[in-house]
Design goal:
By secondary structure, the protein is an alpha/beta fold. 30% of the residues lie in helices and 22% in strands. The strands form three sheets. It has a nine-stranded mixed sheet with strand order 4-1-5-6-13-12-11-8-9, sandwiched between helices. 41% of the residues are buried.
Length: 254
């Protein structure tokens, strides 16, 4: 039996005078080893892509985190150097991708920037430099040359009892990593909060109208999928949803 195929968002990276469309390997490894799925990179080509033709061929969508931020013009904010860097070609690709994938009820897992893209795509806003807001914690990664230290589990989140995330992880608190300067400001219509940090920062959401797996986390479960129980459960659940989608598509085509 073939494995489900998951479309993975890519960043545009200038390297050696060329524009590369790339994704960090930890997301791809988490799909292969944690979700038992096959990743396929989606280049950030914006309107040049026929998204419906692409989505016809996949069983789920993963939106990755990134060092770049969603451009503030897309949610009514003012762009300046402090809330960059930006990747407008990724924005032009992922925001319509989100809307098309949700319309098709495809399994969707959005991580960090992906959560922020989901919120903006559905009409929400973001806030920058969360660490400067009174009462908020510093959610940025520690300065370190070690990726294990940068992605170390740093704080707890409280899962909303009875929600979709609780169905995967249970109602207990879980410890997560924290590597972001931006967060959800105004929650988009059609999203439900699934978890908050101790300082009230929204850490996870779900899509109300989606009947299956449509979750987003502000933290990075991909990094510890091989050793952290909560991270492993999230990717396993996403993989199960993608396999169910693959089976349903095969049956409808028969």
């Amino acid at each position: 039996m073939r494995k489900p195929v998951v479309l993975v968002s890519a960043d545009v990276k200038p390297i050696d005078g060329f524009d590369w469309h790339a994704a960090i390997s930890s997301y791809l490894d988490a799909l292969v080893h944690g979700a038992d799925a096959m990743p396929v990179l989606l280049p950030a080509l914006g309107p040049a892509l026929d998204l419906d033709s692409l989505l016809d061929r996949v069983d789920g969508v993963l939106l990755t985190g990134s060092r770049s931020n969603v451009h503030p013009s897309l949610y009514g904010g003012d762009a300046h150097e402090r809330n960059g860097p930006f990747d407008t070609r990724r924005d032009a690709t992922t925001l319509p991708l989100i809307r098309r994938a949700l319309a098709r009820r495809l399994p969707l897992f959005a991580i960090c920037r992906g959560l922020q893209e989901l919120n903006v795509a559905l009409g929400g806003t973001l806030v920058s430099e969360v660490q400067e807001i009174e009462g908020r914690q510093d959610h940025r990664a520690p300065e370190s040359g070690s990726m294990d230290e940068r992605f170390a589990l740093a704080h707890h989140v409280d899962i909303i009892p009875g929600g979709r995330l609780a169905a995967v992880l249970g109602d207990a608190r879980v410890e997560v990593n924290s590597l972001h300067r931006q967060a959800i400001g105004t929650l988009a219509p059609g999203l439900t909060i699934e978890a908050r940090a101790e300082d009230s920062t929204i850490e996870a959401v779900s899509v109300d109208a989606h009947p299956g797996f449509a979750l987003a986390t502000q933290w990075h479960p991909e990094y510890w999928v091989g050793s952290d129980t909560a991270s492993a459960r999230l990717f396993a659940a996403f993989g199960e949803a993608a396999r169910a989608q693959m089976t349903a598509t095969a049956r409808s085509a028969a």
